[in-house]
Design brief:
Blueprint lengths: L1 H10 L1 E3 L3 E3 L10 H14 L7 E5 L3 H12 L3 E6 L9 E8 L4 E8 L8 E9 L3 H13 L2 E11 L4 H7 L4 E11 L2 E4 L2
Parallel strand pairs: 3-4, 3-7, 7-8, 8-9
Antiparallel strand pairs: 1-2, 4-6, 5-6, 9-10
Helix pairs in contact: 2-3
The structure holds guanosine-5',3'-tetraphosphate.
């Protein structure tokens, strides 16, 4: 999506060789006009998939997912990073091992809000190593819902997450796919 690629080139800030800061428009301050355009693009790409629910993960995915869900006219559910003890049986849970942050955490969603009747589109801001997305996929599969695919704002295609998730048979639609980042600049996949 040219609009997002252009914005990354204008306002993205590289941190080292592999971290892209997009704090000014995507995951701290948020440009909801841009999110609406992203939502329209995913609504076009997944138009025939009868999406009934958007699923994301706290925190940065929530803002994008809310605007996207408006385009689809469906609710948003976000997986919580578990801090409190939950009564077994009430939630679907998965363990996420984040390489980026060097930690392991559980994510949960209530069984009340996800089930076999749902057709789920996953939305997240970044795809790097794919740990968060793998956790979300497990939640969907455990619930018996149908996974229609994943919409990612920024895929760092030089990291293994995209290939990993696609090799699991999941359709991944990333609006900006970064091929390489260096002091010379950012290049996108064709
Ligand atoms: P991982 O396996 O390395 O942990 O990669 P994953 O794709 O699961 O992404 C892990 C977290 O790191 C995500 O945030 C993702 O948004 C963030 N992230 C990865 N690469 C970048 C990057 O280049 N720039 C920025 N800004 N974020 C990146 P999270 O753990 O879910 O936390 P939150 O930020 O959503 O609260």
């Amino acid at each position: 999506m040219k609009l997002l690629e252009q914005r990354i080139l204008e306002d993205g800030v590289m941190e080292g060789e592999d971290v892209l800061k997009v704090d000014s428009f995507l995951n701290h301050q948020m440009d909801v006009g841009l999110f609406a355009e992203m939502g329209k693009e995913w609504a076009r790409l997944f138009a025939d998939d009868h999406v009934t629910k958007i699923l994301t993960i706290e925190a940065s995915g929530i803002g994008i997912a809310c605007v996207v869900a408006q385009q689809f006219g469906v609710p948003v559910l976000f997986a919580k990073k578990n801090k409190t003890k939950n009564i077994a049986g009430e939630v679907y849970s998965a363990q996420v091992e984040s390489f980026t942050h060097g930690r392991v955490y559980d994510i949960i969603v209530s069984k009340k809000f996800l089930g076999p009747g749902d057709r789920v589109l996953l939305i997240d801001d970044f795809l790097a190593n794919g740990a968060a997305l793998q956790g979300l996929i497990k939640l969907v599969r455990d619930s018996g819902a149908t996974l229609v695919g994943a919409g990612i704002a920024v895929e760092k295609a030089f990291q293994p997450g995209g290939d990993l998730i696609r090799s699991m048979g999941v359709r991944v639609e990333s609006l900006a796919r970064i091929k390489a980042m260096s002091s010379k600049g950012i290049t996108f996949c064709d």
